[in-house]
Predict the structure.
Amino acid sequence: MAKMEIDDRFSRFGTVGFTATSRVNDFMGYLDEGRVMGTCCKTCKLDFFPPRADCSGCLGNDLSWFDAGEKTGSLLTFSKMKYGPKGFEDDLPYTIAVVDFGSFKMFGRMSRDLEDEDIRIGMTLRVRANPLEGGRINYVFHRAEPARDGADINA
Ligand SMILES: [Zn+2]
C-alpha cells in the first residue's frame, strides 16, 4: 500500500508552529520564494489574509492568489512585547502590529530594522518574507520606500 504523502509545509511557519497542514499550503511555497500571498475570491472580489480556501462572503471556493508584498499599507496599531508566550521568550522584545492594506488587514511583527522611535501610527509599510533560524520562516513589516517618481516635496 502506497504511503500517503502529507504536505506539512506549514509546520515551518513562524517561531513556533501551531499547525502542519492547511488547505492553503502553497502559502509556504510562495513564502520560500519571498512572496507573502493572500487569496482573493474570484466571484465577489473579497481579499483574505491569512489566505483562505473558502470565501466568507459568498461561501464559494473559487479563489486566486495575490501578492500582498506588492501593496503598501498603513500602520493601524502596534505593541511592544516585553513578555512572550511559551516558545517566543528568545525573541523578546519584539513589536507586533496590525497593518491596514485597504481590502484586508494583516497581523504580524515589525522588522527589527525599525527603531521604536521611528514607529508611528499611519506610517506606510510593506510586508516581506523573513527567513528564521532552522529553516523556519515568517513575514515582517518594513517601512515602505518613499516613492521615487520625481515628486520631491523639498525640491
Ligand atoms: Zn466570494
Q: What stands out?
A: Residues 150-155 have pLDDT under 50 and may be disordered. Residues 40 and 47 are 4 Å apart (CA to CA). The pocket of zinc ion is lined by residues 41, 43-44, 46, 55, 57-58, 60 (CB under 6 Å). The chain has one domain: 9-143.
